[in-house]
Amino acid sequence: MNRDDVLYKALETIQERGESYGDASKSFMRIADMWGTFLDQRITPAEVAIMMIMLKIARLESSPNHSDSWIDICGYAALAGEITSESDNVNNRHPL
What we know:
It is a single chain. The chain is globular. It has helices at about 5-20, 25-40, 45-60, 65-85. It has four helices and no strands. The chain has one domain (about 5-85). It starts with a helix and ends in a 10-residue tail after the last helix.
């Protein structure tokens, strides 16, 4: 799989997940709310994407040739870029 394949597959995955789960910004907001409640602290949708990237990196430590993790990292990075560009202030934390 070359870089174009990875990026194309990430785009395809984002589109498929959008059809299954709806708008990523809204989904990440729901996740941020749930994680924030569980952790008793505020979490932003962009932080959800960052933590999902970290999860994928942790998995790659034991399976570096697992292409889905690389694809997912690209997808989460793209979504984080989109989510932060929608926000006036990237560091503005979402209230619980």
